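Lab notebook, bench 4. Still working through the backlog of constructs that have no structural model yet. Next entry is a single chain of 132 residues. Request: give me the structure tokens for it.
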Amino acid sequence: MTDGDAGIAGVLAMLLISVSMVVAVALLTGSQIVVARVEAANAADAAALAAAPVTFRPFGAMGSPAAEAARLAKSNGAGLLRCRCPVDRSMQTRTVEVEVVVVRHVWIMGSVSVKATGRAEFDPSQLLSSDP
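Model written out:
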């Protein structure tokens, strides 16, 4: 092998190492964002599920449907941005919608806010059903 061949091999090795590092950083950053999206979606769904029955009756909740949604969002590492969950004491089926935000520190990008929306339907007439 000549000195020229060794030089080319060294350059190619450095190029391969550089590309590998860029790919590794991209995968790490992408996976952190995906995890934040999943956490936000889970928190939104939990908040909506908690708020939905409280629109009918408190069922042991300490506050309004929005307060219950905020409590569950917080317990899942998120903040409540919006809650469309008006109190409705009728026996009509209702759907609540909440929006939450999860803020995570993502390496290279800094703080990233990820929003998610969750919906839940509650049918009070099912409380009268005798089916197990």
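Notes after review: The beta strands are 79-84, 94-106, 110-122. The radius of gyration is 25 Å. Flag for follow-up if needed.
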